[in-house]
Structures are given as C-alpha cells and as structure tokens.
Amino acid sequence: MRKPIAIRRQHAIAAHPVFQALNREPAAPAELASIQAGELLALDDLARGVATERATQDLIDMLLTAGALGRMGIGPEVLPLLGGALGLALRLHAGPKPARLEGPGLALLRQVRDLHDQQRRIASRAELVRAGLEAMGQLAAATRRAAGSSTSTTR
Q1: What is the distance between the alpha carbons of residues 50 and 62, in angstroms, rounded to a whole number?
Q2: How far apart are CA 108 and CA 63, in angstroms?
Q3: CA-CA-CA-CA torsion for 82, 138, 142, 63, nearest 10 degrees?
Q4: Are the C-beta atoms of 36 and 59 separated by less than 8 Å?
Q5: S-S: 115 plus which of 78, 88, 108, 140, CB 3.0-4.6 Å?
Q6: How far apart are CA 59 and CA 39, in angstroms?
C-alpha cells in the first residue's frame, strides 16, 4: 500500500506580494525611449515625405496601443481623437510609399502621440503589456478581415 500524498495548498499567484509589486512596476526607461524614438522618427519621416511602410506601421501600433490603454481607463482623453487618427494612418499605410503628411493630419498624429506618451508614464509595465497584446489582437483581426474580404471579391 502506498503512502498517502499530502495535498499542497494552492495559492493564487495574483495574491503573491512579489507578483503585485511587479504589476505596479513602471516600464523600463530604456524600453520606452526606444519606442518613443521610433514614433518620433516615423512622424518626422511623414513630415519630410520619406515615410516607409515600417514608419506607418509604427504609428498604427502606437494608435492601437493608445486606444487599448484609453479603454482600460488610462488617459481616456485620447479616445475621441483615435477615430480620425487611425483612419488617417491606415490610409497612409495602404497608400503609395514614400508617404507624406502635413497640416492638420500631422498635428493630429502628434497630439495623439503626446497623449500616448503621458499614458505610458502613468501605466505600469503589466498594463502596457496587456494593452500591447490587445492591440496585436486587433491588428490580427483586422488583417484576417481584410484577407477574407479580398478573397471573397476575387472569386
């Protein structure tokens, strides 16, 4: 006969103090600096008329992440601006390269980037990761929808 196995007590990982501390930890400044530099370069490339597909993709990623953070309650003032900014960025991404943008469209993207910069300063690392994952999911869903609609029109 086997010896009875003692059942270990299960603890919720979310209740662990180390896990809670990591969730409240701000994002690393070096990580944020490289992301911010990419966004600023993309906006500068748009203003100079040399924006590539990568630059427009960086802007779309920024806008989707800003929207996810806004819906989470972090900087919700960005939400009213997102509709126009995201439509503009998607048109630039689908249009001819190199892309150029000036005037109110560029000002709108810069305003959203400034608000998103404030969101990043407020959000914890875990919230930024959650928002980034939500943005990736939205992008993947939009890509699947676009692929589905293009295949249905070619049949």
Answers
A1: 19
A2: 11
A3: 30
A4: no
A5: 78
A6: 6
